[in-house]
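Practice problem: Nicotinamidase-related amidase
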Amino acid sequence: MTVILMTAIAALLGLCLYAIAGMYRLQRPTRGPRIDKDARPGEALLIIDMQSDFTGRGGGYPADDVEAVISLINEHASDAYGRDCPVITVRHSFLARYVNVFLRLLARGRGAAGSAGLGLDPRLETGVAADFMKHQADAFSAPEFEAWLDAHRIGRLSIAGRDGNTGIRATAQAALNRGYEVEILAPAVLARAEPQWRLQQRRLSRRGARISM
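Answer key — structure tokens:
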């Protein structure tokens, strides 16, 4: 009986460590070829992970904060359209089976594959030029996203959305890794851990991102 119990505990511990390692891999920014900025005069407004599963009731953010950020994103989108600047959205869905199991057990399925809340929050008034689905924190992990930027000669990204410590951070760092000019629209970013988000902003600034306040 003791051997069976110890084996079960070891298996559970191994599963937890595997899940933690997997989540770390999902958060890691990607690298890619450096772009020629002189050949990419275009800019785009990039809105990350503003999906109903995460911005609605029970999504983990204060409702007033969500409303304020959505209002600011709508303002940025309106300004972008006025300057003939495309608005791009990237949404997140977890692909790994074990992550989806945990989400269904512990988070009521929010963010899991097949969830009805994977669509954009309906309060967004963006009318996007392109929409992409990713399965890691970094938007550049979706090949279609990077291909679209290449095809439209985009060299500058203004980034808003959620979460500052995951999708925003990873995407901004991945863009910097490739030589993009990056602006973080900080007031238009949701973050669950504000002290950590302030630290991430300082780190991104040191690496070359512009932080707009």
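Discussion: The helical segments are 2-27, 52-55, 63-82, 97-106, 143-151, 164-177, 194-206. Students who identified this feature from the tokens alone can consider the problem solved.
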